[in-house]
Amino acid sequence: MKFVILTGMSGAGKSTAIKMMEDIGYYCVDNLPIALLEKFVELSSLQENAELQKVAVGIDIRNGQALEEIRDVLARIKKKKVHYEILFLDAEDSVLVKRYKETRRNHPLSGGDRVDKGIEEERKRLAFLKESADYIIDTSQLLTRELKAELDKIFVQNQDYKNLFITILSFGFKYGIPADSDLVFDVRFLPNPYYVEGLRAKTGNDKEIQDYVFQYEEAHTFLDKLEDMLNFLIPNYIAEGKNQLVISIGCTGGKHRSVTLANALYERLSGQKGYGLKIEHRDIGKDALRGK
Question: Which annotated residues bind ATP (predicted)?
């Protein structure tokens, strides 16, 4: 039997993940009382229950004080040689607060207090589960389809998963540095295609801009050195337990040089094992929208 405990922060996407696990063939039970977990595992392990050979159980803060009992329950399950894995969904506090405000829901621990107080308390109570987790997915920057892709990697493709998800983000300095950046690189040292006749309206997704940027040896050197540094940093971030890494590359408007180099970096890092990867161009269309 393949048995997964799905847990994590309220608002991090557990309900969505449960539905996705059903779609990939898991029998799913959400918010199962802790007192019933051991018995449920025993019933699922019986040979005649062939349809219960892949099971996912959602357990979270809604169990209240009973959540503390899960340590002993899991210890007994392990003694019975039932293998289980823990998937923990997380998100940054600011993202969780925003999601609660958008849905106009109260946090289960906030009571009459502010949402952030409930989130703080929930982190304390779930800390032991996060420390024991086999997989941690930070959904702060993930779209629904990207979360599905990560679950497929783990539970369908059985890929080795190291819990780190990397976002390569191009941006324009004139619109501000992205607040969630971990690493910021400024490529305004390169000549700007904006001032070249016929190139202003194009973007770093167009071959003409890419050819213009990479005609300069400095662009190749920058990319080589950046890749070399990331090849050093990423394994250390994984070892340290980091779940989310945002690499921001900026130029003046976020349309030409930054987009070109972000795309090139994405190509170089694609296919690497041990982390998820996506690319975003935050400001690529802003000049067009403003009529510039």
Answer: 8-15
9 has binding-site annotation: yes
Q: Which residues contact 72 (CB under 8 A, 6 or more apart)?
A: none
Longest dimension (CA), the chain: 73
Catalogue all structural domains in the chain, each as residue range(s) with its CATH number. Answer: 2-161 (3.40.50.300), 165-289 (no CATH)
| pLDDT tens by residue, 34-86 | 888 888 888 877 655 566 778 999 988 888 878 888 888 988 988 888 888 99
290 marked as binding residue: no
On whether 112 is known to bind a ligand per the annotation, the reply is no
13 is in an annotated binding site: yes
CA–CA separation, 292 and 255 (whole Å): 12
Structure confidence by residue, pLDDT tens digits, 127-160 = 889 988 989 999 988 889 989 988 988 888 776 6
Does 234 appear as a known binding residue?
no
pTM of the model: 0.69
Q: For residues 276 and 99, give the distance between their C-alpha atoms in angstroms, rounded to a whole number.
A: 23
What tens digit of pLDDT does each residue of 170-186 get?
Answer: 999 999 999 889 999 99
Is 10 annotated as belonging to a binding site?
Answer: yes
The reply to whether 12 sits in an annotated binding site is yes
